[in-house]
Amino acid sequence: MGKSKVPYIAMLLLAVAIGAMLLYLIPHRYRLNQTTTYKESGRELTNPLTGYAPEAYSIKECEDSRLVYIGLTWAMWEPSPGKYDTEALEEYFHIDRWKREGKHAVLRFLCDVPGEEEHMDIPQWLYEETGDGAFYDTGYGQGYSPNYDNEYLIERHRMAIEALAQYLGQDDFVAYVELGSLGHWGEWHTNTDEGVAPLPSPEICWDYVLAYSDHFHHARLLMRRNFVMAAEGAMGLYNDMVGDRESTEEWLGWIEDGGSFATAGDPLEYQTMTSFWQSAPCGGEFTSRYPLEELLGERLDATLSMIRESHMTFIGPKCPEGELKDSQAAKLLEGELGYRYYISELSTHYSFSQGRLEVGMTWQNSGLAPLYFDWPVTMYVYDSHGNLEYWETVEINLSELYPGKEIQTMTHIPFTQEFQKGFRIGIGITDPDEEECIELAMDAPLQDGVQIIYTKD
Predict the structure, then answer these.
(1) Which residues pair with 430 in a beta bridge?
(2) Predicted pLDDT of residue 8
(3) Helices and strands, number each (H, E), in the chain
(4) Cα 411 from chain centroid?
(5) Distance between alpha carbon 304 and the CA centroid of its chain, in Å?
(6) Are strands 51-52 and 314-315 parallel, antiparallel or unpaired?
(7) CA angle, 244 as apex, 240 and 246 as ends, to 5°?
(8) Cβ–Cβ < 8 Å for 51, 39
(9) Of 54-58, 397-401, 415-419, which range is least confident?
């Protein structure tokens, strides 16, 4: 009985030996167990959802941007009760054109924009129904400050925002909504030093916030200051004084230390939001205190520092325009904004037992902020002749890849005989509709939405 087992044992040992030999020879013969490291390229990128956001009504200024800014007054949006002028909105801000060109919008709804002449930014019919606000002529300019406590105005505001969200929520064109509505320029403050009434009580302010959060479900929301509503709603923040060191430091101080803001009722509390930028965007525009030429010239280092400290994703509508936007300084500042994803390491390992190649990647972000939308990432595998043979989703949430963090991914390739002759690995990052793509900060050209980052001959 014992001797009859010998051939089987020998065969088993032979099979094990052959398996071990194949396990060694295949990956070594075809050099399948490899690790490649990469450096961030540092080259200029023009990726979506970040950068300058010039005024959407200016075709010339928006031609080269990926974002546009829509500052919509209530008077334009609702010229008569319940009649929302979508045609005027589309025509004035060239919305159809920007959609065709794959741009996204920053939206701010405005009730009071100081100007050079006496005017109102709420509809005439609303003024006639309320009439309890006040015209002003201050150092900010001239305008009309509504009575934000008025119950009829609050209800009509809710209806106007709901209609705006329904109209603009049909697609993902509007990416960022800055909660305006209250105060001069929608910045949640009034010139009380010159007699303009203060903001309403926190309870009333909540009504204005809920009008946005209840109806804008896809765009990311931002507030001018880190009020408790912003913290509880996990919102982003925007600073309209970028380049003004004193104002920006005050703004950053509120974010770091909290505090409170005087209203017509109880103080409106600030809540610390030191790391808000890891999950929600930072936007805003350049200050009007200094000429843009000065911000891009002798104040460039200080301006750059403020952008970095704030982890900004976009700047607009006040941003470099005309010849200034083509200057080296303007491009330097824009290149700092938002995300810059790249793969710092790619490793391949052959699994003999499963007949597949394991592809591990280390993802990093050399920018100031993450992408705040989880666009799908796909790995493409081509044979030695350039034919696409396989593709697989890479399991990664780009919204969680903020600066200073690494994310490791593992994707598997069925290793066919064709791949023994050589293969290439490409990465494609697109929006869910596969109409826009993101370029990695790597020395690999983007072709048809894919960058070839690894070649095995």
Answers:
(1) 437
(2) 59
(3) 13, 22
(4) 27
(5) 19
(6) parallel
(7) 110
(8) no
(9) 415-419
Task: Quote the tokens at residue 292.
Answer: 């843009």
> Distance between CA atoms of 219 and 105, rounded to whole angstroms?
10
Number of residues that make up the chain: 457
> pLDDT tens, 316-329?
999 999 999 999 99
**Rounded (10°) angle between helices 328-336 and 300-310:** 10
Residue 4's Cβ-count burial label (10 Å; 0-12, 13-18, 19+) is: exposed
C-beta of residue 135 within 8 angstroms of C-beta of residue 143: yes
Q: Which amino acid is at 106?
A: V
DSSP 8-class letter at 49: T
pTM score: 0.92
The string of DSSP codes covering 357-392 is EEEEEEEEE-SSS--SS---EEEEEEETTS-EEEEE
Between the CA atoms of 141, 146, 148 and 153, what dihedral angle is there, to the nearest 10 degrees? -150
Please give the single-letter amino acid code of residue 86.
Answer: T
Confidence band of 418 (pLDDT split at 50, 70, 90): confident
CA angle 158, 161, 165 (to 5 degrees): 135
Contact 204, 154 (CB under 8 A): yes
Cα angle 186, 187, 190 (rounded to 5 degrees) comes to: 95
Q: How far apart are CA 278 and CA 311, in angstroms?
A: 9
Q: State the first-to-last Cα distance of the chain, in angstroms, to the nearest integer.
A: 53
| pLDDT tens column, 41-93 | 989 999 999 999 999 999 999 999 999 999 999 999 999 999 999 999 999 99
Which residue bears the tokens 């003004």? 244
